[in-house]
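Quick one, probably user error.
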């Protein structure tokens, strides 16, 4: 009689754990899938420059800053880039490609994703 009781409780316990796993793995209204987004930095736009969202630019280090340019003309500067971004750009030939994600008109800055 005691062994029957142990079998019944063990089976119930395993079922509740499995049901919990199923609940965790089932997507619902609040489930968000992670997306792969590139590293972004905020750049101050030069006064005479105009940027367009989606535009591809060149990003190069200059001292402790990153210079964003279109061809030979400088269009923006990233004043204090994160250290890992600076090391990654310096380690890959000191040139990176950047894409304008968003332009903030009031603050005259742009969000630039570094590819």
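Nope, works fine. Designed sequence:
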């Amino acid at each position: 009689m005691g062994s029957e009781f142990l079998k019944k409780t063990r089976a119930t316990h395993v079922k509740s754990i499995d049901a919990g796993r199923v609940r965790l793995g089932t997507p619902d209204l609040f489930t968000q899938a992670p997306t792969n987004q590139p590293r972004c930095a905020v750049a101050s736009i030069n006064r005479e420059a105009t940027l367009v969202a989606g535009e591809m630019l060149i990003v190069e280090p200059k001292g402790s800053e990153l210079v964003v340019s279109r061809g030979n003309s400088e269009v923006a500067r990233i004043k204090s880039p994160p250290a890992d971004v600076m090391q990654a750009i310096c380690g890959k030939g000191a040139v990176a490609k950047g894409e304008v994600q968003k332009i903030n008109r009031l603050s005259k800055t742009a969000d630039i994703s570094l590819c």
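The chain has two helices and six strands.
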